[in-house]
Amino acid sequence: MTHETVPLYGGQLSRRVTIRDLRTAKERGERWPMLTSYDMYTAEIFDAAGIPVLLVGDSAGNNVYAHPDTVPVTVEELVPLARAVVRSTSRALVVSDLPFGSYQLGPEQALATSIRVMKETGVQAVKLEGGLPVVESVRRIVEAGIPVMAHVGFTPQSVNALGGYRVQGRGPEADKLIESALALEEAGAFAVVLEMVVAEVAAEVTKRLSIPTIGIGAGPDVDAQVLVWQDMAGLRGGRMPRFVKQYGDLRGALVDATKAFADDVVSGGFPAEEQTYH
Ligand code: KIV
Fold first, then answer.
1. Domains along the sequence of the chain with CATH
2. Dihedrals φ, ψ of 124, to 5°?
3. What stretch of H or E contains 78?
4. 160 by DSSP, 3-state: which?
5. How far apart are CA 269 and CA 102, in angstroms?
6. Which residues participate in the annotated binding site for 3-methyl-2-oxobutanoate?
7. Which of 66, 125, 197, 252 has the fewest CB atoms nearer than 10 Å to its CB?
8. Which atom of ligand 1 is nearest to the CA of 214?
């Protein structure tokens, strides 16, 4: 099997996945999984499990830093997390988000932040949110040799302007969304995230683009699916968005382990002889 034909997930690529691999996977009609990661252990586990793309998302805001949403996240907060994920992986293509405020001033700021993130973290690509208003920034970053993942539909950094967590692409919004995705591809983006997009519109975008589409709440007819790992593995408590499927109950497992440890300490069961030095 040549590198051109090794499946992205389940194949044994002995090097990091590249944006070229993602394009050939699209040509083969292959679907692939993507997860967020913000730390060493999850990065190691997801890399060993063969997840081909890991995103150090600004969802660290509400999954690591206890911010209410992604808006307050800074480059200074994301850089150490991205660095840890890169150091803990050998195979996944690692993408870092550009946080809110670090690229909205225009192409020069977007390029400066991207260069900083690439140099300080070792990630292989950056991601930014938005449609037509960021097309020139995407072009500028790509022309400088930095791969860019785009993100349209519901864009969490604009949650205040969008009026909350609302599904995108309904009715007349659909054409604008498709036009944005096409323009981002033309500007050089290597993939586009479609978040909370009506399934039929996501399917149409996927058909029209030659770069992969990555859905999160965008239905089944996209090239890849991404979830925030704490949602996927059941670490987060509370109400989940409709698009989340939980594949584990890490929160329950951690509650049980914590209680067992605490009970043992109180009863004198820990440490036992096996954990004691003489
Ligand atoms: O920040 C993030 O985790 C994301 C994904 C949800 C796509 O942007």
1. 19-247 (3.20.20.60), 250-277 (no CATH)
2. -100, -10
3. helix 75-87
4. helix
5. 51
6. 58-59, 97, 127
7. 66
8. 7
**Full pLDDT tens readout for the chain, 278 residues:** 555 678 899 877 889 999 999 999 999 999 999 999 999 999 999 999 999 999 999 999 999 999 999 999 999 999 999 999 999 999 999 999 999 999 999 999 999 999 999 999 999 999 999 999 999 999 999 999 999 999 999 999 999 999 889 999 999 999 999 999 999 999 999 999 999 999 999 999 999 999 999 999 999 999 999 999 999 999 999 999 999 999 999 999 999 999 999 999 999 999 999 999 99
Contact 141, 187 (CB under 8 A): no
Residue 243: count other Cβ atoms within 10 Å of its Cβ: 16
Ligand 1 atom at shortest distance from the alpha carbon of 127? 8
- 209: tokens are 């683009």
Query: For ligand 1, is residue 118 a contact (CB within 6 Å)?
Result: no
Question: Which among 76, 195, 200, 273 is annotated as catalytic?
Answer: 195
Is the CB of 54 inside a 6 Å radius of any atom of ligand 1?
A: no
Ligand 1 atom 8, closest CA:
57
**Cα 244 off chain centre by:** 14
State pTM to two decimals.
0.96
